[in-house]
Design brief:
Elements: H1 2-25, H2 38-49, E1 57-58, E2 61-62, H3 80-89, H4 101-117, E3 126-127, E4 133-134
Antiparallel strand pairs: 1-2, 3-4
Helix pairs in contact: 2-4, 3-4
């Protein structure tokens, strides 16, 4: 009898999990993702191929050796020249990359796109009783 009860409980849990996933992933409430330009997509690919995530964070996700680069493009005294300088020369813990000008431009466009989507840390987030977090984005009014 306990085996049948366990099988029944597992079956009910799997069914509930499946219904929940269908509801969540077919919901029309989510916004369409912002598409990257071809050049920014190349920058994203370079970012991934060179394993930048292992040291740097974007929106607080990634490694902890380097700084979070979510808003590096719009930070005072930083921007495109600052990013390219670090890619050219590296620093103590960051290797010197031999990127072409086109590749550096692509990485800068990728970081510019990330910068345009939001803030990190986001102090204007609204926490709901249900556990959902509503974020403030740069491209929303």
């Amino acid at each position: 009898m306990p085996k049948k009860a366990n099988i029944l409980i597992i079956s009910v849990l799997i069914t509930l999990f499946s219904v929940y996933n269908i509801f969540i992933y077919t919901s029309q409430d989510c916004k369409q993702p912002i598409k990257l330009s071809i050049k920014a997509s190349k920058g994203q690919q370079l970012w991934q191929n060179n394993n930048c995530w292992s040291c740097h964070q974007v929106y607080g996700l990634g490694g902890y050796l380097g700084p979070d680069l979510t808003n590096v493009y719009s930070s005072p005294n930083k921007g495109e020249s600052y990013i390219k300088a670090f890619l050219n020369s590296g620093v103590k813990t960051m290797p010197k990359f031999n990127f072409s000008e086109e590749e550096k431009d692509a990485i800068v466009l990728y970081l510019k796109h990330i910068d345009s989507t939001g803030y990190f840390p986001n102090y204007d987030a609204n926490l709901h009783k249900t556990g959902w977090v509503e974020l403030k984005y740069k491209n929303e009014k």
